[in-house]
Design brief:
The complex is a heterodimer of chains A (438) and B (534).
Chain A (H helix, E strand, L loop, with lengths): L1 H21 L10 E6 L7 H20 L8 E6 L5 H14 L4 E4 L3 H13 L4 E3 L12 E3 L8 H12 L3 E7 L2 H16 L7 E6 L7 H11 L5 E6 L5 H10 L9 E3 L4 H4 L11 E4 L8 H14 L8 H20 L4 H8 L3 E3 L5 E3 L7 E2 L2 E5 L5 E6 L4 E2 L13 E4 L6 E5 L4 E2 L3 H7 L1
Parallel strand pairs in A: 1-2, 1-3, 3-4, 4-5, 6-7, 6-8, 8-9, 9-10
Antiparallel strand pairs in A: 10-14, 11-12, 13-16, 14-15, 17-18, 18-19
Chain B lengths: L1 H19 L3 H4 L1 H11 L4 H14 L4 H9 L3 E4 L5 E4 L6 E6 L5 E6 L3 E3 L4 H15 L5 H11 L5 H13 L3 H17 L5 H5 L5 H11 L4 H50 L7 H18 L4 H26 L8 H22 L16 E5 L2 E4 H23 L1 H11 L1 H6 L4 H23 L11 H14 L4 H22 L1 H18 L10 H4 L1
Antiparallel strand pairs in B: 1-2, 1-5, 2-3, 3-4, 6-7
The chains are: A alpha/beta (438), B mainly alpha (534).
Chain lengths: 438, 534
Amino acid sequence: MIPSSASRSPRWLAASLLSLGVAAPALAQEDPIKVGILHSLSGTMAISETVLKETVEMLIAQQNAEGGLLGRQLEAVVVDPASDWPLFAEKARELLAQQEVDVIFGNWTSVSRKSVLPVVEELNGLLFYPVQYEGEESSENVFYTGAAPNQQAIPAVDYLMNEVGVERWVLAGTDYVYPRTTNKILEAYLKGHGVGEADIMINYTPFGHSDWQNIVSEIKAFGSEGKKTAVVSTINGDANVPFYRELGNQGLDAADIPVVAFSVGEQELTGIDTAPLVGHLAAWNYFMSVDTDANYDFIDAWIEYTGDDMAVTNDPMEAHYIGFHMWAEAVRKAGTTEVDAVKEAIIGVSVPNLTGGYAAMMPNHHITKPVLIGEIQDNGQFSIVWETPSTVAGDAWSDYLEGSKDLISDWRAPMSCGNYNVVTGSCGGGEAEVASAE
Amino acid sequence: MRMIRSLVRALFCLVVVALAAPAALAAADDDGQARLEALDTRAYADKGEAIEALAASGDPRTRRWLEALMDGKLQRHKETGRFVVVLENRGRHWPVADALTGEALGEMSRRELDRIGINNALRGRLQSTLAVLDLRVEDAGARREAARDLLGRVDAAMVAPLEDVLEAEGDPEVRRLLAQGLAIHRLERGEAAAVEALAGSLNPEARAALSAAARSEDPDLAEAASGALADIEQKLRLNRGLETLYFGLSLGSVLVLAAIGLAITFGVMGVINMAHGELMMLGAYTTWAMQQLLPGQPGLALLLAIPAGFLVAALAGVAIERGVIQFLKGRPLETLLATFGVSLILQQLVRTVISPLNRTVVTPEWMSGSLMINEGLSLTLNRLYVLGFALLVFAGLMLVMRRTRLGLEVRAVTQNRAMARAMGIRATRVDILTFALGSGVAGLAGVALSQLTNVGPNLGQNYIIDSFMVVVFGGVGNLWGTLVAGLSLGVINQVLEPWAGAVLAKILVLVFIILFIQKRPRGLFPQKGRAAEG
């Protein structure tokens, strides 16, 4: 605490000097609203997270240009947790305890979010988490603006089953919590729809896996048994490039065996020559190719902000866009940045998204989103081939997993519970089983 | 491959169509607009019909439109409703041409244009429509490609025209493929007689059709299909064995490439260089930089990147040797920590200076696709090239070590430094050159890896552990050991993978090495003599 108060005194001094000298209007003396940004700028996750940090900075600059919030300017406080999961917790503590930020936008991987969770809950902070994730979580202090499994994986499988007529399924993923939980949900869902054990192949690979020859060859053999086959990929990050390359080289065409991915977006495709991938699918809640004016304005602003004419936008960026505007709206509604007031005010807040509709914050701290299926084009963009007729509300606890299907989350009074068990009628039930299911 | 193929197709068909329908050219304008209007519908079923109507119309511009549609480049100007073909769809402003007249219209932005959408099912239908057209071209290679494309895609409407084509066809390979395509269609309709035509075919589509037939209600058909399938499975078994061997050698060649530079710096000089992976990364980035310098010529850039990657990595290696390692001679732990620091610095440098994002390295045409051995077995070309490249690098390195003065001096210095100096060899200079050579080879590995995996700041990290593993397993200080160790670890890994899974296979390989090192601490090919003791 000593260093922080010491560092504050010069600012007080500066502020009083300023008001003495210029005699500025009263509101200029107020402290700026502090917005913490907790994204890795170095290490393995920098590839995905750096653009999110820049997105929040751009949103802050835009908000300031419009006169700030409650008459106060916004100020970004950036820290670098360096893709190091325990460091995420330390940096979150630094943001909340020392910098005393009013809100945090951050995290990418689930493991980093789990590491930050106890800190935000202990210090009563606000965290906006912008990435699609495996669900099975609802914290009083976290707002999940990315997709839950029912907003991405389930609709994608529905599309393949009903529109493409897929009967055999390969569930391929990187070996960690998000793919394993998602695949568990998908497996239960597929079996519930009459898909037999023999028609599901599950395959896990280590992080950064680069030799896909055998697996692609297996998929090819699995797919040549006379039933329409598709691959549902939860392969993460860097491993995708060699995977898609191998698919192209072994001649697996999207028309024969389509691959639908949940972790491959415009950002990931910038590292790939996409010509052999045309027609493979991705499921997201936003694509850069969405044809709305709001989206074009966002892209123009982003390109101007980054100064890179070829810069791309992606789904987690839109999630931050929505999250930021929801938070700003809630602050306006509450008339303060005080955490408890904002937490209460934000439920039910609805702001425009970039796909031409509205996103609303649900009582379980998840938001409503449309689900889009896109096919990869040769220029690294997606062409949208299908979308849900209306938005889908995020479900914190999957309806397809034992131990989680009886749980609901509602943070409004009087329930105020993230895992209420509707069978036993108590708060906190089922947590242990779910933890072991992961 | 694909681009050449479609180019060839486009050219031939333009010729054919232009010869066939010169009269249609003049009058078509209004019809063209109407036909394109029919394509601009939200329902994919209507769109499919519109495509068929268009293909049947004989309009000379049909092929251009269908190809643009297939690439998502047939678009409509929102304000005027004019149909345009996008010529280049990267960036934000696209050059476009009028779809009807072909007249260039300058640049338009995405905001002004509306895309005529297409999905996988339609794309498949379009491909077979185009393939049927292609069966009439003169080039036999193009006809074979077209016939192969049609396998498993024949539908009832195509049977009659295909039978006509088959009648007139002279090329035996095209005839065989067409007959198979038609047989697959007949089998799908439940004709047991078609099984005979497909017996012994290793083609995946034929196998898929037979598997489906084997599950059919009709007992005769099911029995015949199962019999044919069992026969095919028998033949495929040998194929699978060969394929696994190839996968293993290919993975092994990557390991050899990654480890061979280390075999020199660590094996011969005894320096533990944790920044070895980052030297590979520099080689990969050099490839990317070359492709940026020579846009449109990825193949030439790749060839030039081979010497350039070697030089860049060698220079970086010299800098590391002079700047860090020479001060830590004989202190392996400190060297390990210091070079680990260097590796982090290099990674972050790339992140800050270039970008934290992966860079796109284009695979040249002649390296994509695969080499077909038979219908059930094809070898991917990029990996075949890397395998050859690894062997070449190894041979080159052996030559340098065995046949040049530098090689002689290196061996002298590593065997007995003091004696070598007494004989007038400048040991410091040899150190620098050896380290430069090892680093340069790491750069070469990077150039090769840029064709297989991501070019990004983390590239090196993924290979450093494997490289040390290979060198230790092969026997420190022995280049042959590195080659044998790399290739055999690759094969072991790929043999284990199908039944153990990728994660477990990796663990099993590590356990195997640990046990092996327990038994033979000096690896496969231990160095002999007094030098090895010191």
